[in-house]
Amino acid sequence: MTYSKKITCLALLAFTACGTAGDESTTDSASTTDSASASDGATEGGATDGETGDTGATPDVLDPALFHIFALVSDFTKVDCTLTDGSSSTCYTVTVRNEPAQWGPGCPSTDSEVGGVGFYDPDGVPVLYALDAELWALMEADGFDIVDDQGNVNVVAPTGPPGMGGGDPPVTNGACLDAELVDTLEMTYFIPAKPALSGSTTQVAVPAVPYSGISLDGLPLAPAPPPTVMGGMAALPALDPCGGHPEPDGPFHWHLTPQESNHVLDANGIRDDVRCGAIEQVSDAVIGYGADGFPIYGSQDPDGTTPGDLDECHGHDALGGYHYHVSATDAPNNITCLKGLLATNFLVRK
Ligand SMILES: [Zn+2]
Ligand SMILES: [Zn+2]
User: Fold this and answer.
1) Kind and range of the H or E element at 280?
2) Ion ligand 2 contact residues with beta carbon within 5 A
């Protein structure tokens, strides 16, 4: 398969079946790397549909067939895992190479161009802006120096400790940050197959729990990006219009739920030439899974209604089980806490 073919496929069909048979979804996008060398004790045997040797009466919650992973390294299998309360459980595991089907733009190189989006927070409250001359003028008016006399934007590739929401604090008084994508990095996830409420709330926060879940494209969902303005300096991490960017030396991750990103951009008054084109916008279906294994839906339930009974983690027990919803209007909009038990190793870098 070629890159452009995949792009076309994704652009046309996005998270609906990319091909004819739904069961081919994961194998269809298998990467050319043959590192199917089963990882971390994962059971051999290629693609499974999650029905391997189940003894429990309740079905698994996670459905591998919903995923459409561009750079799949090894397909979903089930393995023994340990949860954060010390109990033994069964988890799905999948290994993904760090490459989205399509991403960008991030920072524009001049003030006559338009890039993606970013959060500017001079008052400590992150507000979503398009990366354009209007934002640079706003930042310059606040005393930061981000555009030179020739109209060139100060674009910096941030470095920092490996991944997981790290990165060094800003060291300039005005920069747009575009991290390099490390497309050789592999991430292995462990997600409880039968999620269980923990009775408490886990806040998603660097470094212990940097990601709230996994998107159906196999890339992690993150809550708010780090602050832009710190200690009188400003460095603004660029997001592409679907809400994603690479971590310096770490996973590409989504700060906006990619399937709801255009709704969020609309709701936040972002100019209409900055929109997510690569990922189909979906509100009333599963868009990913929390790190605890509970499904994450878009802003609506499958019947098209917007739930009004969500808890502090944007979850509720409805339609046959506990699940989360993301907002179609908040920016950022990914869930920021979890109600279930997590595997002790949700995302492992390789
Ligand atoms: Zn980030
Ligand atoms: Zn719901």
Assistant:
1) none
2) 301, 307, 318
